[in-house]
Design goal:
Elements lengths: L6 H21 L1 H19 L3 H12 L3 H37 L8 H10 L4 H10 L1 E7 L8 H19 L6 H19 L11 H34 L14 E2 L13 H29 L11 H13 L1 H6 L8 H22 L20 H17 L3 H18 L5 E7 H14 L11 H13 L14 H19 L5 E7 L4 H13 L3 E2 L3 E2 L2 E6 L2 H15 L2 H9 L3 E7 L1 H7 L1 H21 L3 E7 L11 H6 L9 E7 L1 H7 L2 H17 L11 H22 L5 H8 L2 H4 L22 H10 L10 H9 L18 H20 L1 H15 L3 H8 L5 H26 L9 H28 L5 H22 L4
Parallel strand pairs: 1-2, 1-10, 2-3, 3-4, 4-7, 7-8, 8-9, 9-10
Antiparallel strand pairs: 5-6
Helix pairs in contact: 1-2, 1-4, 1-8, 2-3, 2-36, 3-36, 4-7, 4-36, 4-37, 5-9, 5-26, 7-8, 9-10, 9-15, 9-26, 10-13, 10-15, 10-18, 11-13, 14-15, 16-18, 16-19, 17-19, 20-23, 22-23, 23-27, 27-31, 31-35, 32-33, 34-35, 36-37
């Protein structure tokens, strides 16, 4: 299916031809002819834009019945799914070729390259070891609904990807019958995709989302992370052979699925309990299955090798604990102690699984129930058993055996523990405020807590945190439903940590943290249920989430005050003096625009790091990124390296959500590349020797750029009373809110205000309508203003026209040169402009103008669209000026070509979606409305697949 000349084009053509055959077989020759005609006109329109040709395409689509539009959407959507696979295979192929060409030099952006760089910068092994001892990289999978594809479709696409890899990258030539079988397999999967539903019949439940997340662990991550752990150890041993390395897990995963209750009424305490049971049971079943491989591997006999006394004692102990399991061990294995212990460990794991699924949680028992001795309560208990076998194997000369399956299983348990991923709990600060107000009033402590000013709230909360007196009654029936649920959530978490596994949940995240009292409120609720006892224990990290521009600016002062308070500082001491802080990329962008939000996040990190250092606290930043540039998306490695130097501190968390989860973790090879790039970036950013601080003139420039960009953005979005109408009518935001891709509502409350709309449908809508506003708007005005309002850049080669006086001209030239230097030398600014270029390349003002035609008031639409179009042209002109390129993405020709090649295929979907929206918003019969709505939702899937980085 490939040729050496251009494997990507060959694969795309072959997949397209196969899709064409499937279309003809399944829907007749007319379907293929129609698709080819629409595609031909769209390509011609791209090559030679004209109003007449655009009108012809629109009229042609308008004349088609819903059934034929449905077929067209399905065809183009499937095509993009296949193209995305081909591009993924090509990335892996090119990487493989480059690896062979570079050998023996390490892979570019790989783990070994990062370690080699540390050695070249004379970073001492002892410094790296100290860094490793506390380092943590934690991707956190969330259920934020930006994955529009069904898991059924993802599985079929994955199987095509696997077959395409075999066809493209196999070193030995395929025999003819093997190639025929592979191509037949691809066609079989495409037929399955054609015959399957494209959109979900109903929204997934929260537990459906949990199972979807677990799929990636089962499919890829359980086996991949021990491999990455091994690669890091090997790289360290190669470049620092003189040092004996002490390894601990660098990569761990977290999850929000089933724990994120902010604005999601379906995440109840019961659902959270079911979530952790499911996550832990899934991991335990995997470990039980892993015992079979270990049993086969560890056949060492006492007659052949010595065995440690400690291992024999553990066998005797477990034989007494699990007599039935001991009796069931085959007599053939009487001389094989490792196999005997493996069988007994399996028995304990099975008992642990039963306990996980069936133990009845009871909060508030006195005395609290002790962990059963025959279950694994902590992962360290299982690790101790596995390490015991490893040490005994080393004693008997079995180092190579110990470094095989057993080593990987030890690594797996250290990374994933017994629960797959750490579950975070998230709730809005307003829910804690209202709950405490009710509890304090009912207890006679304070009649109007919500009415107190901040100093009074802090004083009251501090006193209550140090008081042993309970606030609320054991029975919660006397409180409002919301308050009862809030308290029950804390009780459920406390019971889980006490009776199932203390490592299940570590973080409580507070959305919209605006005050010290927001953080103390959570600490008080923890004290109320026994998860915090001053001077003794604190079981949860209290994690503020700063989301808006104002909150980010205020965050350092808030944390300074918080860390100065004895009550909170005592909690932090009990948590190892590590303070996690989450930064919200989505709402800060929606509130202040792309450039302003990115700078607010950068500045907040610098100032928060300084606050933490003053108080002797280690800061762990949690980056709440989305897939789209407007929500902090972009290449992960570049994003890490663009963070302020010195703020990483060896620990970083970042969200992975929606389509980014499948893009990154559906295939083990793709996942490996992504994670090694992340590890590479974190290692390189972790040591002062490799860092370069930005020049003060750069940060001063960014202050001015961010302020101007924010004013331009808010001038359009919030200060223009006509904008809301334009947004609601010129984008499919209403239809996206009906897309059944997540359990959570599209808005935080029943409101039409932009402030109340969640960031995902906000970004999704602008991507679908090809405006892509969240990824660039305001940046052009800010750059132009910084260079000088009186001057204009004549073309992309930056011939600056003469100004009114020489002074202004010279100033403009100096400012432009400063921006160019920033772009070349400052990773933050480079990433900012490159991400804007990428998202602008996916925009299309011609298509966007067609969406503006959906607005009832066309004069209003014309006024708003004129502002958008002018800013787009300005931003494009200024980015090209600063980056010194002739056109957007001029320095990234591969990406530029890929986007340009996709556009003629995305355009038909846009025209079809426009027609469907017009029909849906008109007067139609109920049956016809359902068919049109399904087609609209399919078109949303197709455009998302075509553009990528959708949410």
């Amino acid at each position: 299916m490939t040729t050496e000349r251009d494997p990507l084009s060959t694969n795309i053509r072959a997949l397209g031809s196969t899709l064409g055959r499937v279309m003809t077989d399944q829907s007749g020759a007319r379907a293929l002819e129609l698709e080819e005609e629409v595609r031909r006109i769209a390509k011609e329109l791209r090559a030679s834009p004209s109003d007449a040709l655009a009108a012809r395409l629109a009229a042609m689509i308008a004349g088609l019945p819903v059934g034929e539009l449905h077929g067209l959407v399905k065809a183009f959507t499937l095509y993009f799914g296949l193209v995305n696979l081909a591009e993924g295979v090509e990335r892996l192929r090119v990487l493989s070729v480059r690896d062979r060409q570079r050998y023996p030099a390490p892979r570019t952006e790989g783990i070994a390259e990062a370690v080699a760089a540390l050695r070249s910068h004379a970073v001492a092994a002892e410094d790296i070891q100290a860094w490793l001892d506390h380092a943590l990289i934690m991707p956190v999978l969330t259920a934020h609904p930006t994955e529009s594809r069904r898991r059924t479709s993802l599985n079929k696409l994955r199987r095509i990807f696997d077959t395409l890899i075999e066809l493209t990258m196999r070193t030995a030539p395929m025999l003819p019958h093997e190639q025929v079988a592979a191509i037949t397999q691809i066609e079989r999967e495409i037929v399955g995709l054609w015959q399957s539903d494209d959109v979900r019949i109903e929204k997934p439940s929260v537990l459906d989302e949990v199972e979807n997340g677990l799929f990636y662990f089962q499919r890829v991550l359980w086996d991949l992370l021990p491999q990455i752990d091994r690669e890091l150890e090997m790289a360290l041993a190669e470049h620092y052979p003189e040092h004996s390395w002490r390894m601990s897990p660098l990569l761990r995963f977290g999850s929000w699925m089933g724990g994120d209750r902010d604005g999601n009424p379906f995440v109840t305490p019961e659902v959270t309990v079911d979530t952790v049971r499911l996550m832990r049971a899934t991991m335990l079943r995997h470990l039980i299955e892993s015992m079979a491989g270990l049993h086969t591997d560890l056949s060492q006999s006492r007659q052949q090798v010595p065995v440690s006394a400690a291992l024999l004692a553990r066998i005797e102990h477990y034989s007494a604990m699990f007599p039935e399991a001991a009796a069931a061990i085959s007599k053939h294995h009487a001389r094989e102690p490792y196999r005997r212990l493996v069988q007994l460990i399996r028995a304990r794991l099975e008992r642990t699984l039963h306990h996980t699924l069936h133990h009845e949680l009871r909060w508030g028992q006195d005395p609290p129930p002790l962990p059963q001795p025959d279950v694994y309560f902590r992962s360290e208990e299982l690790l101790a058993d596995l390490q015991l076998m490893r040490e005994s194997l080393l004693l008997g000369g079995g180092a190579l055996v110990a470094d095989g399956l057993l080593r990987d299983l030890i690594s797996k348990v250290a990374i994933f523990r017994l629960n797959t991923a750490t579950l975070d709990i998230r709730q809005h600060s307003g829910r804690h405020l209202s709950a405490l107000a009710e509890l304090l009033a009912a207890a006679g402590v304070c009649a109007d807590y919500a009415g107190l000013d901040e100093p009074a709230r802090i004083a009251l909360l501090s006193a209550e945190i140090s008081s042993p007196r309970p606030l609320c009654e054991t029975r919660l029936s006397n409180y409002s439903q919301e308050t009862a649920e809030t308290v029950q959530t804390f009780r459920a978490v406390a019971a889980l940590l006490e009776q199932i596994d203390p490592q299940l949940i570590e973080n409580y995240i507070i959305s919209m943290t605006t005050s010290v009292s927001d953080m103390l409120a959570v600490l008080l609720l923890c004290r109320e249920v026994g998860m915090y006892e001053p001077g003794q224990l604190s079981l949860l990290n209290v994690v503020p989430l700063f989301e808006t521009g104002e909150d980010l600016a205020h965050a350092p002062l808030l944390m300074e005050a918080c860390l100065s308070m004895p009550a909170y500082r005592e909690h932090l001491r009990l948590r190892g003096d590590v303070q996690e802080i989450m930064l919200g990329y989505s709402d800060s962008n929606k509130e202040g625009g792309f450039a302003s939000a990115n700078w607010a996040l950068y500045r907040a990190q610098v100032e928060l790091d300084a606050v933490a250092e003053r108080h002797g606290v280690r800061l762990r930043l949690f980056h709440g990124r989305g897939g789209a540039v407007g929500r902090g998306g972009g290449p992960a490695g570049e994003a890490i390296l663009s963070q302020p130097p010195g703020t990483l501190n060896g620990q970083i968390k970042m969200t992975d959500q929606g389509e980014m989860i499948s893009d990154r973790y559906l295939d083990p090879r793709t996942a490996h590349r992504h994670l090694e790039q992340v590890v590479n970036a974190v290692l390189r950013a972790g040591f002062p020797e490799t860092l370069k601080l930005p020049d003060p003139s750069w940060t001063a420039a960014m202050e001015q750029i961010a302020a101007t960009a924010r004013a331009a953005y808010r001038g359009l979005i919030y200060d223009n009373p006509e904008f809301l109408t334009y947004f609601r009518e010129a984008t499919p935001v209403t239809e996206i809110s009906r897309l059944r891709i997540g359990s959570r509502p599209a808005s935080r409350r029943n409101s039409a205000r932009i402030e109340d709309l969640r960031a995902i449908p906000w970004v999704f809508s602008w991507m679908q309508s090809r405006h892509t506003i969240p990824g660039w708007f305001g940046l052009g005005s800010a750059l132009a203003d910084f260079v000088g309002n009186e001057l204009q850049i004549a073309d992309f080669r930056l011939q600056i026209e003469a100004a009114a006086d020489a002074h202004n001209l010279q100033s403009a030239i100096c400012n432009l040169q400063l921006l160019r230097t920033m772009y070349r030398q400052w990773p933050f600014f480079t990433t900012l402009l490159d991400n804007a270029q990428m998202i602008m390349a996916k925009a299309d003002m011609g298509i966007a103008r067609q969406y503006a035609g959906l607005v009832d008031d066309q004069e209003l639409a014309g006024r708003v669209f004129a502002q958008i179009e002018a800013e787009f042209a300005r931003t494009r002109r200024m980015i090209c000026a600063v980056a010194q390129v002739d056109e957007i993405l001029g320095a990234a020709p591969v990406l530029q070509r890929a986007i340009h090649q996709r556009n003629p295929y995305v355009d038909p979907l846009s025209y079809i979606q426009l027609e469907l929206l017009q029909r849906l918003r008109g007067e139609v019969e109920p049956d016809e409305q359902e068919r049109i709505e399904t087609a609209v939702l399919m078109s949303i899937n197709g455009i998302a697949a075509g553009l990528k980085n959708t949410g």
